[in-house]
Design a protein that fits this description.
Blueprint lengths: L7 H10 L7 H4 L1 H14 L9 H15 L2 H13 L4 H15 L1 H17 L17 H13 L1 H10 L5 H16 L6 H15 L3 H13 L4 H15 L1 H14 L13
């Protein structure tokens, strides 16, 4: 029987990220692992250089939280730490996932992260990264929300919300942005990439994906960066969710060589 194994580039990338790791699937499912590793750790990586390895790994971790892949997340977190993602950054990815994926999903990932970190000799808790208080979170959250989403867009969200939904808008400003986006450890442009990755991976959040494509552009993330992030997510979230997110990218930042829509009249 022919021995199936990944190519040299995929093997080198795998050994760099997972030193000493022996995959049981390479033994039980060699054909799948051969072409998955060749795809995810060679072919795909050729199209993700615009975001850099650490940012790519961070967005992949964020997406794995969104899809609920605890086992794969645990393995990839080890790779991310090996590649230079810091314990603070790892925790900040988890914290930022709470307003987007919900604590019910994030809970197990928080414990998995704590275990991986303590197994590596990291003392918990880590140094706090919060910059707001109960008195300032709303004001500072609204300011960063306006910076990211746009002042007119935020004003419209408040103006268009019925009276009995105004508290949800305040939650977005004070909690989603005030409690999370104002934290240190990860800068706002990378936080927006994490949010984009989580929303793309969640599925069923197409309006939010489109909104955060625009938000990414507001904070300086280009079309090329967004496509590189989605390319890195593709092996882990699949084609349907990737293509849906690409449609949002195309709607907000059309390519220079995009074909002109035909007039049906």
């Amino acid at each position: 029987m022919t021995v199936r194994k990944p190519n040299a580039a995929a093997t080198a990338a795998h050994e760099r990220l997972f030193p000493g790791h022996v995959s049981t699937l390479a033994v039980t499912d060699p054909e799948l692992i051969e072409y998955f590793d060749n795809f995810a750790f060679d072919e795909v990586l050729q199209h993700t250089r615009e975001v850099g390895e650490r940012t790519r790994l961070m967005t992949q971790l964020a997406a794995m939280i969104a899809v609920g892949a605890v086992a794969e997340y645990r393995v990839m977190l080890g790779a991310a730490l090996t590649a230079g993602v810091t314990p603070v950054q790892a925790k900040e990815i988890i914290y930022q996932a709470v307003p987007y994926a919900g604590m019910a999903r994030v809970f197990d990932f928080l414990h998995a992260t704590n275990q991986v970190l303590t197994d590596r000799g990291v003392t918990l808790p880590l140094e706090g990264q919060s910059t707001t208080s109960s008195d300032t979170r709303m004001e500072q959250g609204l300011a960063v929300q306006q910076r990211i989403v746009g002042e007119k867009a935020v004003d419209a969200m408040y103006a268009n919300a019925p009276a009995d939904e105004q508290h949800i808008q305040r939650f977005l400003s004070g909690n989603c942005f005030g409690d999370h986006y104002t934290r240190t450890g990860i800068d706002v442009p990378v936080r927006e990439l994490l949010t984009f990755a989580m929303l793309a991976a969640l599925g069923g959040a197409d309006p939010q994906v489109k909104g955060h494509v625009a938000a990414n552009v507001h904070v300086g993330n280009t079309r090329g960066v967004l496509i590189a992030v989605l390319t890195g997510l593709l092996p882990f979230i699949g084609y349907p969710r990737t293509l849906n997110a690409l449609a949002a990218v195309d709607a907000i930042t059309p390519a220079d060589d995009a074909p002109t829509p035909k007039d049906d009249a």
